[in-house]
Amino acid sequence: MQMGTTRKSITGALDGSDIIIVGAGLAGLFTALKLAPHPVTIISATPLGIGTASSWAQGGIAAAVGESDTAEAHAEDTIRAGAGLVEPKMAESVAREAPDRIEDLLAFGVPFDRNLEGLLELSREAAHSKRRVVRVKGDMAGASIMNALVNAVSRQPSIKILDQYEARNLITQDSRVIGIRMAYTQKTDASELYDIGAGAVILAAGGIGQLYEVTTNPGLSRGDALAMAARAGAIMADSEFVQFHPTAINIGKDPAPLATEALRGDGATLVNGAGGHFMKQVHDDAELAPRDIVARAVHREITNGRGAFLDCRTAIGREFPEKFPGVYKICREAGLDPIHDLIPIAPAAHYHMGGILTDAIGRTSLDGLWACGEAASTGLHGANRLASNSLLEAVVFAARIAQDLQGRYLGTRHCNPDKSTAPRLKKQAAGDVEEEIVKTLRQTMSRHVGVVRNEEGLTAAIDILENIEHGPLITPKIENMLCAAKLIATAALEREESRGGHFRSDHPQPREEFRKRSFQTREHTDRLCAKVVARKAKTHLNLVHSS
Ligand code: SIN
């Protein structure tokens, strides 16, 4: 049992809900709506519609709904972008289901853009062979989709919302997930924990961008879902594959606002500080090359001191405010006018291809636990996600999970708190100290586990992460961030090749023996970290003796 914490069991608030969904982004809300009228409870750390990465999505949803497009072509582009690690059957089935999920979203009231003939307006994004991305008001897809779903959820009596509750842990019994432990975020005494039992828990609590110093993700994208699942013993997959978006707007904001790839789809170009059009030398598709290639080229320009900018002046010019109102507003607030000015950019952690391993219907390796959205690793994205396939994956897997659970009353379980996988709380956080530790962790991840990696840097990162773990202060936030960061750093160390979003300067080519997905457990990660630290200490000792 944890020191200095109290626990309560909530039952009244949950009468009748055997399904708990953790997370209220697109994946969580869509699952709940597809399950209706089956009663579900959604746990959200923030009020509904606020603070989710889904709301910030600018691009839209990829779906082969254009006249000359096919699900086969969409699947092929997904497989090509994924650099050898996409599971082809997964890509094919998801691409086939995409048009139906767009129909669902239209039925929930999402006002996708239409052209003069009334057909869905489609954008082009990198590595798509067709214009294939359905969007809303240019770059407002995420906000509009979430707005429509929040309205639909609030009209649906079968969905209960426990907002401002932060899930802390999965409760397990005999390797089965039987509930959730959570804290009420508005309570000053955050050590008071509440346990709720469930027949099924769906983790849809988002990604990991906040593990990095520069990210497009909101504050709560800090690997909580991964950490909870890993602590409970779930298998993780492809953790090393983090996607860095090449064009986050570099104006010193945290999180960094995004300049959507659709701008490049409409002809915007990338230039360095000397006005050089650097993508031409890098890839035949120039600005529309796969995202990892563009991100590395932008990183190179910045580290070489030339700087990198998005030039929208000629291709978009005066149409900017109407075509991309979201990005235009961000620029104007930062004192930039993209009609006349270059937009300063930098790569930013944007999306995690890895996550909790699931099968084709969202089941994880633990009984009683499903996962979807960015927290899951389904095999769709491989080493590099195709643009606008993330919201698509969220709705496709939400629907599949709902179908898997629909009509099955699973019953709520009685929680036996002593069987839970509780995080260690060394000390209640002194806020400033916690912030310092989080800052160190984020800097470490960006410096050593970022766009360009190598053995020396990854080993240094693991050493720093282990030092934090064995240091004087561990809070739930630090505990989760550490756990997710260690999964990523160790998987990156073990993959001695470059592929998709994972680039190793000491192994710059792909290697055939690594053309497979990676799988990890928390135990494996901890063992590897301990080995790395011991090896580092031994090398240090040898150096001291020989000097
Ligand atoms: C973008 O609009 O560039 C981002 C879309 C995505 O991440 O898929």
Question: What is this entry, summarized?
Answer:
By secondary structure, this protein is an alpha/beta fold. It has 3 domains: 6-240 and 353-419, FAD/NAD(P)-binding domain (3-Layer(bba) Sandwich); 244-348, Succinate dehydrogenase/fumarate reductase flavoprotein, catalytic domain (Flavocytochrome C3, Chain A, domain 1), CATH 3.90.700.10; 431-546, Fumarate reductase/succinate dehydrogenase flavoprotein-like, C-terminal domain (Methane Monooxygenase Hydroxylase, Chain G, domain 1), CATH 1.20.58. The protein contains 16 helices and 20 strands.
Describe how the helices and strands are arranged:
Elements: E1 6-9, E2 19-22, H1 26-35, E3 40-44, H2 53-56, E4 61-62, H3 71-81, H4 88-107, E5 122-123, E6 133-134, H5 141-155, E7 159-163, E8 165-173, E9 176-184, E10 192-197, E11 200-203, H6 224-231, E12 236-237, E13 242-249, H7 262-265, E14 269-272, H8 279-282, H9 291-303, E15 308-311, H10 320-323, H11 325-333, E16 343-352, E17 355-357, E18 369-371, E19 376-377, H12 390-405, H13 431-448, H14 455-469, H15 476-494, E20 519-520, H16 522-546
Parallel strand pairs: 1-10, 2-3, 2-11, 3-7, 11-18, 17-19
Antiparallel strand pairs: 4-6, 5-6, 8-9, 9-10, 12-17, 12-20, 13-16, 14-15, 15-16
The chain binds succinic acid.
Succinic acid binds next to strand 16.
